[in-house]
Sequence to fold (899 residues):
Amino acid sequence: MTQFAIKTSLPRYLRVEQEKIEKIAREYGLDFFPTIFEMLSYDQMNEIAAYGGFPNRYPHWRYGMEYERLSKSYEYGLSKIYEMVINNNPSYAYLLEGNSFTDQKLVMCHVFGHVDFFKNNFAFRPTDLDASADVVDATRHLSGGYEPNRKWMDKMANHATAVRRVVDRFGIARVEEFIDVCLSLENLIDAYSRFVVRERTERPQDEPSEIEVPRLRAKDYMEDFINPEEYLEEQKKKIEADREKLKKYPPEPVQDVLAFLLENAPLEKWERLILSIIREEAYYFVPQMQTKVMNEGWASFWHSRLMTERVADPSDIIDYAENNAGVMATSGGRLNPYKLGVELFRHIEERWNKGQFGREWDECDDLDQKRSWDLRLGLGGKKIFEVRALYTDVTFIDEFLTPEFCIENKLFSFDWSNRNERYEIASREFRSVKEKLLHQLTNFGNPYIYVVDANFENRGELLLQHDHRGVDLRGDYAKETLQSLVRVWKRPVVLATVLDNKPALLRFDGKEHTVKNDAAP
Amino acid sequence: MCQNASFSMSLKIDQDHSRFRNIVRGKIRQNLRRYISQGEMIGRKGKDLVSIPIPQIDIPRFTFGDKQQGGVGQGDGEPGDPLSESEEEGEGGQGKAGKDAGDHALEVDVTLDELAEILGEELELPAIENKGKSRIVSAKDRYTGIRTVGPESLRHFRRTYREALKRAISSGIYNPANPLVVPQREDKRYRSWNEETEPVANAVIIYMMDVSGSMGDEQKEIVRIESFWIDTWLQKQYKGIESRYIIHDAVAREVDKETFFRTRESGGTMISSAYKLCAGLIEQHYPPTEWNIYPFHFSDGDNWSMDDTLTCIEILKNDILPKVNVFSYGQVESPYGSGQFIKDLREHYAGDDRVIVSEIRDRDAIVGSIKDFLGKGK
Fold:
């Protein structure tokens, strides 16, 4: 750490503090990558934040838009970025120049929580790179000390250089237009693809021969009994169906639409380069979207514990309390992921300390008994470290959100009321709250969309299927996204979805949008 | 390392930022004529900024329609209670769990300066030649810092209280059961100020409007929209411009801006009354050696008598035209007006570039009329 810290522009008193906090954090069991803190002025901070934490990204106007938004909300005093840390090995974290010493300590503690999470949560494994900076097979087994290559800072910078080179050749307008197209497809990826080794089905090369159903061996006189006519027919149909499936391309629905397009769309070389860069970066950010509640919860859990138990001086406490309260605040009934996450971790710690889990606990329905339940197991500390390694937001909420927790934290679900034209509290029931929360988090809040046919209706059109789970797609955006798809696929694109409880086909042919209601492919 | 890197970094985001601003400007330019004729921006005007709703500047994706989806919140309330406003917006750094904030139309803040620039580009308006002589500068205090000494009126309550709380706790006199915190002298924190200089106005717009019975609400709305854009453009040319407002029917009086656009009178029309008042204002307050003066007069073209019209011509010739940059007359078509006055002006001042007249048939004609008035660069 020190060998890195020397290179930064961090003032001496903060370097000393960093070493102190690192030592304390390790004593508490946190296990993090080397972490480099840098001090930034607020406009540098806004700039880097606009670039998603990286000092060097490919050129695109949306970073400028984000920069404007951040600078505005800072100028108006609406918000200020306290901390930013990126998943990289070594990790980089930024401190805002002019923050009080108390704030800087708080931020450092918070950052070590994040870096521990980056290093240990399984969802981040797919961001490991090998020596050639390709993404490593996340399912591989690890042994010994874990010091992966996560030089994403360099990778992003290389992407930036590659894109700039393309810009030099084709001009910013043309390249940026194509980046817009790619970005509008950015979320069509398969968050779990890195953990599944999928068989590649080869397309059948030969003309299929006559179907011959394999028969069970039988003596002549037994033939009709062992291989009855109906059975043979049935088998024949099955084989036919399998062959039919093979003829279809892709043989199985593909959720990684970007990968499918990269392999199959008629793209120019530079376009393919840009699409692959955007896909790669999209996958880099997936784990952070999958673990927003947990990651912020974990970091907040640790800044609060480290600060209040070891790091803060008595003179820091009031400023610390004020800032911590600001970060944890829920206003206007809004759910704050920091707050939800930290409370859930504390809840888990308490339950495992007191032995409030397992069959006996689940089967007990005496509320008084439950309230005073304490087996003094002291397993909480171990449990939360295990949880931070093995869960993502969906499984975290699914497993550890309890009815008691919902009541204590006053959680509710809300819905849009058509009658009153406003959002209204729908329910405080545990099941409804949990369902809504899980829905928001599933597939990091994105719809499930698959490529199902690359030769739809035998016209080379691309058919996508939206796996509708109760919520329609936003119509105007869907249309524009179809335009982006056509730009890449160069042929008409059809999306099978559901509108107002009826199946519908949205189609864009390059000129015109059509909607076929009550129709399925 | 950080210092060196930051230099080139700034350049990078500046490029991305300026491309974003260009997209915004392009969108505004595209829609400018519609914005103008619908008077959309006027209600959105702050002190130096106008916020403009820009349709879809973000990147479209396959995403859920928001209303069906609902969500989870935290706090008090019974089922059926509405959520507070801030939640519906779903904006801010934190937003709802697992879901990106805000997909409502983007509101972009544009400075009036920038807006004027866009207007200038779209209508190809030339920059104005400054006729005034002096540029007076005044000093202004802005409260930006904190000090430990200062007058009580500038005491920063929150900071003072926090210092007092710290002292109370560290000296052990703080009692959580009776949380009484008394600030002492050394706890006190005060706002402090810096002096900033601002130029004062050296241009004035004098708006005159006929509010007689024949000028209806729609006619006034047209005047309101047009004057907003005139203000915006002239503001760009002269920082801190002054505006004066005169309404008239048979008699004229000076009013504030609100009254100017709201008042509706009935009865006759004596345009000369307004011109007299205008000439008086100039005479008293705006010596032409120091001021750029822009009188604008809007009416439906009905005047009481030919005699009065002749009086107007006289006042213009002797007392107004020699002193002003340009005199502008906009005639709003109304079902009641005869529209005679513009013809009279044209007859008397044909070829005189100190007088600009423009006919405004309806809202769609506002753009053309703005160009008439401001297109001469006077």
Remarks:
- Chain B has three domains: 1-58+105-124, 137-197, 203-374.
- Chain B is about 40% helix and 20% strand.
- The two ends of chain B are 53 Å apart (CA to CA).
